[in-house]
Design brief:
Strand 1 and strand 2 form a beta hairpin. The radius of gyration is 19 Å and the shape is globular. It has a two-stranded antiparallel ribbon. Helix content is 75%, strand content 2%. The longest helix has 32 residues.
């Protein structure tokens, strides 16, 4: 393992965050706080509790996961797309560094950024509602696994995209709607029975449900099913990344 090369790419990506701190850190935190204020005030006044948890506290895990997923995707996709756009990706590919090390560096940096944003949101939410974390180990596990999985997905999108429109297509038009419809702001048990079954097709449901369980011990699906689905997404993403580097898809001229 070429740790110096991994460190160099990782630090370069983290340095870019410092130069764009408004866009990378402050903007997503402010957006999530606005979600919290609007939904908590508008809906919280009508729904006092969900499964024995105050509505304001209930939506916190969903908001954190929404931000974690979108930020991991955006950071990783832009991180690998920009070197392709400028042509500097060929310098990386020609360096004495393996495909695994390239992936670890870019995905690690993207996951780190999104985790920082998620932790800031978690801390900020404590100023609005009382939050209880019943299972901190599982909370950290879902937090880390989700960040890595969606950073890998973003890495794939960044290689696939050949313009900025494609770069934003999946985060804005697929992941965000799935997160909104995946129980971020409500329990799927509140839906009619037929829609509960339809909602289970949404993969994001399992991530949000498992993460919320780690806070309050309440979940729409079982913990083990959530874990299984999380590792399944991670495994599929790893397999696609392996295929990309093996075939040179969109990396070799």
């Amino acid at each position: 393992m070429n740790f110096e090369a991994v460190k160099a790419i990782y630090l370069a990506e983290m340095a870019r965050t410092k130069r764009t701190i408004m866009q990378s850190i402050i903007s997503p935190v402010i957006s999530t706080v606005l979600y919290f204020v609007v939904f908590g005030a508008a809906i919280g006044s009508r729904i006092s509790e969900v499964d024995g948890v105050s509505y304001g506290a209930f939506i916190v895990p969903g908001l954190i996961m929404l931000s974690l997923m979108t930020q991991s995707l955006s950071n990783a996709s832009f991180g690998i797309y920009f070197p392709q756009f400028t042509g500097t990706i060929f310098e990386v590919l020609s360096a004495p560094i393996s495909f695994l090390e390239i992936t670890i560096a870019y995905v690690g940096a993207a996951a780190t950024k999104s985790i920082v944003v998620g932790l800031i949101i978690l801390i900020t939410a404590n100023f609005f509602v009382d939050i209880e974390i019943q299972h901190p180990f599982w909370m950290a596990a879902f937090f880390l696994l989700t960040a890595i999985t969606f950073a890998l997905l973003g890495f794939i999108i960044g290689i696939w995209a050949d313009n900025f429109e494609k770069l934003q297509f999946v985060p804005l038009l697929i992941v965000t709607p799935l997160a909104f419809l995946g129980g971020s702001f409500y329990s799927i048990s509140m839906l009619p029975e037929v829609w509960q079954k339809v909602t289970l097709i949404n993969p994001v449901v399992y991530l949000i449900s498992g993460f919320r369980w780690s806070f309050y011990g309440q979940a729409d699906v079982s913990l083990w099913l959530s874990l299984f689905m999380t590792f399944l997404f991670l495994g599929v993403s790893l397999a696609i990344v392996h295929w990309i580097f093996k075939t040179g898809y969109k990396l070799k001229p």
